[in-house]
Give the backbone structure.
Amino acid sequence: MATGIDQAIVQQYSSQFDYQFQQRIPRLRRFVRIRTDVVGNQVQFPVLNQSEMEDITGKQHAVTNWIDPQVTARWAQKQDKTHPVMLDWQDRAEILIDLESGYAENGASAAARTADGIIAGAVAGTAFQGNQGQTASPFNTTGITSATASTTLGNVLAAGGTGLTYAKAREARAILNAREVGVDDLGMRDRNAFVWLVNAGAMSQLMNETQAISKDFIEGSPLTEGAIIYFMGFNFVIYNALVNTTGTTYRTLLWHRDAVGFAIWKERDLRIDQLPEHNYSTAVTYMTSMGSVRIQDKGVLAVDVVL
């Protein structure tokens, strides 16, 4: 038997990647106000505040009581992100997989997660307001115990049990209704108006609630889908990067689409370049610039759950 036959054996490699299980597409962009092609290091999201009618009094040609509408503005700060990977020239000869395409796709997945992280961080983060965006407006962690107490602009629901329950979902909806958040849109079937971010544990808790899985309360079958998609007027999105506040307590977030802004300076900048200073290795660099801000405090709530 030939002793060197192993030298003639061709080793078969895969010609494509299987990507590790991960979030690969943006999940939150359809639930925010988006501005694109912006310039500068921050962008303004202005809001015209509520005003009321004036009585017409006096005789003909009476003096008009002019209204001075107030405008507030929040600012999204630009954040620059990059996903740089270097591919050695030796790898091209030894690996049959198209590494450039694979690394670029991995960069796009990282950008999707980063965008959602920026949005979620802005919802419960410090917003900047004023003429130049120099005034900080922290997230108000004042607890709200009921809808009747929601006129004070706290942003944390303190009522209900420790987990994510039907009672908490109902109370959250009542608070938003009391604040006139999205009430005019009720019955309009705008399914993207509200979103609620939960992690896997909170979703499991909600699926243990009879009202949340009964067809008398929802459309579709969560037991078939494996998750609750739409309930109590909220789109439920699984987001496993929720902030762990203390111990086993996680902060779920919910908001109205007009309460959060997302600005895109550069959606996608993919560069594939040879690097002479690195023996002509190939640099696969995926870059993006974006930012987010909480525009209106009224339209945002946090619900802490113990898992």
